[in-house]
Amino acid sequence: MANTDSPQQGQQHKTYKDDFSRRIKEIALTRWIRFSIVALIFLAWVAWMGNWWLSIFIILLFDIYITGYIPLTWWKKSKNKAIRSVMSWVDAIVYAIILVYFVFNFIGQNYQIPSSSLEKTLLTGDYLWVNKLTYGPRVPMTPIHFPLVHNTLPIIGTKSYTEWPSLEYRRLKGFRNVESGDIVVFNFPAGDTVALKIQNPDYYTLVEMQGRESIQNNPEMYGDIVYRPVDRRENYVKRAVALPGDNFKIVNDTIFINGKPQPFPENVQFRYLLQLNTSLTEEMCHDMGIALEDVNREIFDEGTIYNLRHTGILPAADDASFYYTIPVSKPILDDMHSRGILRGSAKVNDFNNAPYPYLFPKGTDWTLSNYGGENGITIPQKGMTVELNPKTWALYNRAIRNYENHPSAEIREDGKVYIDGKIADSYTFKMDYYFMMGDNRDNSQDSRFWGFVPEDHIVGTPMFVLISFDKDRSLFNGGIRWNRIFKDANPDK
Fold first, then answer.
1. What is the pLDDT of residues 183-192, one digit of tens each?
2. How far apart (Å, rounded) are the C-alpha atoms in residues 323 and 342?
């Protein structure tokens, strides 16, 4: 059969082949080595992702490093020096952003401790390195986002991500699961809806306190009301005190898991009423590790002092002493005693343990120090089936509606639960859940207020402190806590 290709087509085929061969031959050995290393890393990542369709991008890498048909480095041949200079910076910045994107999403990232909920284990002002490999990183659910900020671009205040495309939750293989006592960074479960100007308390607590219409009709006070996808919700850090399937309760500040009392973390704090023989100075607070914002001076009248003395709360109470309510740990109490300034102390929960109105679930008479009732609560576990009735609905309805994607689920006046429009006598959970608490037990917004943390909200676990700043001190007067740099961020494990 005769060759039907025209001379021009044959010449064109020959030109492509010769050009390809020329480009291959001109590549230096070092360039081949760089490509091989990058290709192996990329293919290992593809295998980890478990999606071999991604391997098609090896063609793009081959062109970037070897053939160069896509003119990504056109600017290097420009005769304009200014263009070459500017584009070299743009090229370096783009590469850095891509690298940061992959590191932050699949390996780890820095995280700042914004509040005192885990003091004195972690301190306000600690900057942590959070390891995402331990539990396995999540495949980004909002893959298009600026990697250097979490959910809001600085200065302009707009979203740092796009909600399209949106991917379903999937976690890559890690080294282990969350264990009891782990300090965990996670996305705030109740942070799906946010009033931008007031984010503490959370939106749902605000609604309960102020009413939904009041919040929505006062944007000048509360700001815009926005929805955030799971991986763009605020990052929180707490200790995992109960795991999927555990029965959990608190009795007189002691946590019980499956009926067994759990030891306190070494630096656990509780709020104490302290009777001192001197007033606390800023320097004394700094030396003992007490945050100034936690110091609450009490001015008692004679009647209150009399009651403190005769009820046995502070047997030595008198009008010459100084009184403070402060969250402190046992080492701080011991330090006060060794300094000779502590005349008496009483844990606030021991004499003032009234039911708290905003605990989870609503409608109980539980407190921060006695939580879960006589029988405790069971933490949802993947594959666990629970009977649905008014009592269990109060405990699990948010997990069913908000986290497991049954937004229309409801309980009606007859006490029957409807899921997706059908009567449901039971429900089987699709995910594992965790109960998180802070070590600063009486000053921590945690699962006691907003409930369970779903597995798809888990970010990682902090490994060490990168650097730590004391906001109560100037930068050159103890503002940097040098003794905390590279300190273990999970010392109780």
1. 999 999 999 9
2. 10
